[in-house]
Amino acid sequence: MALLKRLAEGDRPVLDFTLDGQPASGLLGDTVLTAVLTCSDHLRGSDFSAEPRAGFCLMGACQDCWVRLGDGRRVRACSTLLEAGQHINREPGRCL
User: Fold this and answer.
1) What is the rounded CA–CA span in Å between residue 55 and residue 42?
2) How far is CA 70 from CA 7, 20, 74, 88, in A?
3) Greatest alpha-carbon span in the chain
4) Rounded Cα–Cα distance for residues 79 and 30 (Å)
5) Which residues is 26 bridged to in the sheet?
6) Are 45 and 52 in contact (CB under 8 A)?
7) Distant-in-sequence, close-in-space partners of 2: CB < 8 Å, separation ≥ 6
8) Which domains does the chain have, with CATH numbers?
9) What angle do CA 23, 95, 44 make, to 5 degrees?
10) Helix (H) or strand (E) holding 44
11) pTM of the predicted model as reported, rounded to 2 decimal places
């Protein structure tokens, strides 16, 4: 179940991407954070408890929305625009 529900701007072009190896889609102009949370219930696991997280500040100032792209780069989901064909891997977090 998605955490966010899109209420407007549904007429933008659809961009297909892969989330943890599964097909997903977002819209042109979405950030990675928006695209992930409109098709899933969390963004990543907490580094401290592995509990699901959805981001914190949503503007690139904290360290809560890191995801890994298919090429190995870690990016902030809240400030990275979604691209067609992107491979996004959520970090599961860990229990310390």
Assistant:
1) 9
2) 29, 10, 9, 6
3) 44
4) 10
5) 15
6) yes
7) 37, 38, 39, 40, 41
8) 14-89 (3.10.20.440)
9) 25
10) strand 44-45
11) 0.88
